[in-house]
Amino acid sequence: MKKIVVLTGAGISAESGIRTFRDSNGLWEEHRIEDVATFEAWQRNPDLVLDFYNQRRKQLYEVKPNAGHLALVELEKKFDVHIITQNVDDLHEQAGSSNVLHLHGELKKVRSTVDDRLVYTLDGWELKKGDLCEKGSQLRPHIVWFGEAVPMIEPAQRLSAQADIFVVIGTSLNVYPAAGLVYYVKKGIPVYLIDPQAEMLSGVQNLTVFRESAGTGVPKLVKQLVSGSEDAK
Ligand code: OAD
């Protein structure tokens, strides 16, 4: 079975009602990264950081996967599909995708501030001051903040290098190291890019761009791949 590796960003969840970061009306227009998404922010004003992620988590319980997430599940009928997502929502899992690697953490999880290995699934949407890990430290959102290491980048790079087909959906490719994954793919394999604002990717051969939303572009691409214009063997 051919291996399809899919890199997703906030754009794939936009049609589920989750705001992206850098579009107009994006989250980073209303909140400063340095106020809510760095370790320094957490040390300076944990209430603000907790509230920011609590609001995101609360919303996640109110939204559903859209046609883009669902189409990627269909792809598993014919391909070995691996999703690498920058998203902290769990809409790929809710849709039913089998292999999802989260590069930037997961909203529904929290972790210890003294031991990174102590990761828990939060019961409900609200993480509060005074919620402690088993070693007695305050729990923090299980999110990779700006300036922090990205522990899952190496498996993501390995997967990208193994891809027979690589698909990029709904990301501005502004944030590294995630944005560099496309340069790990083998030269000449088919690369597809689905994003209404898609630009050409310099240095990527064999690129096909769908300049449209995930909700229409992903089902279209999946239909094309499953119906065999791309050899699945
Ligand atoms: P961005 O907000 O930077 O980019 C969103 C992309 O989605 C843009 O290229 C849009 O054109 C596209 N888009 C918008 N609506 C779409 C739709 N309906 N269908 C398809 N595409 C659509 O989000 P990311 O690239 O995911 O990290 O941002 C990367 C990281 O920056 C995030 O993981 C987050 C953020 O800061 C952290 O918080 C650590």
Oligomer: single chain
Measured as a percent range, the helix fraction is 25-40%
Cα gyration radius (Å): 18 Å
Indicate the overall shape. globular
How would you summarize the topology of this molecule?
Blueprint: E1 3-8, H1 11-14, H2 27-30, H3 33-36, H4 39-44, H5 46-60, H6 67-74, E2 80-85, H7 91-95, E3 100-102, E4 105-112, E5 119-121, E6 139-143, H8 153-162, E7 165-169, E8 191-194, E9 207-210, H9 214-226
Parallel strand pairs: 1-2, 1-7, 2-3, 7-8, 8-9
Antiparallel strand pairs: 4-5, 4-6
Helix pairs in contact: 6-9
The protein binds 2'-O-acetyl adenosine-5-diphosphoribose (OAD).
What does the model show?
The chain has 233 residues and is an alpha/beta fold. The chain has two domains: 1-16 and 65-104 and 149-233, Rossmann fold; 19-62 and 107-143, SIR2/SIRT2 'Small Domain', CATH 3.30.1600.10. It is 30% helix and 19% strand. The protein is built from nine helices and nine strands. It has helices spanning 11-14, 27-30, 33-36, 39-44, 46-60, 67-74, 91-95, 153-162, 214-226; strands spanning 3-8, 80-85, 100-102, 105-112, 119-121, 139-143, 165-169, 191-194, 207-210. It has a six-stranded parallel beta sheet, with helices on both faces. Helix 6 packs parallel to helix 9 (214-226). The protein is globular and about 55 Å long. The chain starts with a strand and ends in a 7-residue tail after the last helix. 38% of the residues are buried. The model has no long low-confidence stretch (mean pLDDT 96). Bound molecules: 2'-O-acetyl adenosine-5-diphosphoribose. 2'-O-acetyl adenosine-5-diphosphoribose binds at residues 9-11, 14-15, 20-23, 26, 37, 86, 104, 144, 170-172, 174-175, 195-197, 213-214.
